[in-house]
Amino acid sequence: MESRARRFFTAEYGGEPRVYRAPGRVNLIGEHTDYNEGYVLPTPIDRHVYVAAKPRPDDRFRVYAADFRQRKEFTVGDTRHDPDRPWSNYVQGVVAVLRDEGHSLRGADMAVTGDVPLGAGLSSSAALLIATLRALWDMNGLELDSLEAAFLGRRAENAFVGVQCGVMDHFVACLGEHGRALFIDCRTNDHRLIDMWPTHRVVVVNTMVRRELAASAYNERRAQCVEAVRIISRSDPGVKALRDVSPEKLVEHWDALPPVLQRRARHVVTENQRALEATGFLETGDMEGFGDLMYDSHESLRYDYEVSCGELDALVDATVDMDEVAGARMTGAGFGGCTVNLVEADYVAEFTETIKERYRRATAKQPEVYLA
Ligand code: GLA
């Protein structure tokens, strides 16, 4: 893929670029908790977005998105959105936030390609943001650290692209390592890498149902969480985010919340508990314990947070009688995209065949399977 990016660049502009990349990710547990200042446990997947780039002497950017065969040109100060080339808003968003931060940037020629499936909940957008950021960071000799880069990536997505996402995806694109899970406390930004166990593999199954994250449902869930906090904090001013609500506290405030907010809050509160407990299980190697929590997480996302869909449920349900699968759940924002499965290492080939077959039978759709 790296040499592909290089070839696209040279064919488009001539000359030799440098190539920068950032990975997609799969979240093992802790879903819809990051923007509630809670806990998440993602890991990078072995698929990346690549940006081949070379600085220019002026302030122009020329960007070629090889996979779409689309081109975009803009200058450093240009902040107009391009509805016909949604991908270009990510590149422009990074330029805009760096400029806002007071960094002076040279223009660049760039060619972008990648193998992170698009719209599949594997964070191709964060990978594009962070690969672009790495290119600009290096070409302009910026003084940044990886944590700052993660937050700049999120800002570009929130402010410029208009998706009110949390920081998980950018965080793991910047600080993740292959073969390790990244535990993040999204309030304090404390984080630590935890080795995965060789007994099990992380297998991602794509429903091939695409849902754009910008779809209002994500921002709506986020607003519902804010509303739940507003109601709870009226009598409990110490509550600043759902992170501050323990299961006991939720029971205390239960009657003050309308039914929809009760369910939303219950998901976030219990998911935070599961993420903490699952991290402990990963550290001690209790994969069965970890897997049970994955199934619980899926139930909670399905019935309380209501972000699953028939295809995701079919994939998860198809695993419950497989003894070699410790756990499965939807991953990412939901409404389509992928499930994450924790599968015994020597069962992966058989799992892949069986899940494909069962999914085809249940939905008449053809899934894709990736190893993380
Ligand atoms: C998307 C967002 C993340 C996170 C997940 C849900 O991937 O970009 O910040 O909120 O959804 O856990």
Order of helices and strands: HEEEEEHEHHHEEEHHHHHEEHE
Strand content: 15-25%
Sheet with the most strands: spatial strand order: 1-3-6-4-5
Bound molecules: alpha-D-galactopyranose
Q: Spans with pLDDT under 50 lasting ≥5 residues?
A: none
Question: Helicity, in percent?
Answer: 40-55%
Rounded to an integer, what's the Rg over CA atoms?
21 Å
Q: Helical region count? A: 11
Major sheet characteristics: 5 strands, mixed
End-to-end separation in angstroms reads 17 Å
Question: Can you give a write-up of this model?
Answer:
The chain has 372 residues and is α+β, with helices and mostly antiparallel strands. The protein is 44% helix and 22% strand. A five-stranded mixed sheet has the order 1-3-6-4-5, sandwiched between helices. The longest helix has 26 residues, at 259-284. The protein starts with a helix and ends with a strand. The mean pLDDT is 95. Bound molecules: alpha-D-galactopyranose.
What's the gist of this structure?
This protein is α+β, with helices and mostly antiparallel strands. Helix content is 44%, strand content 22%.
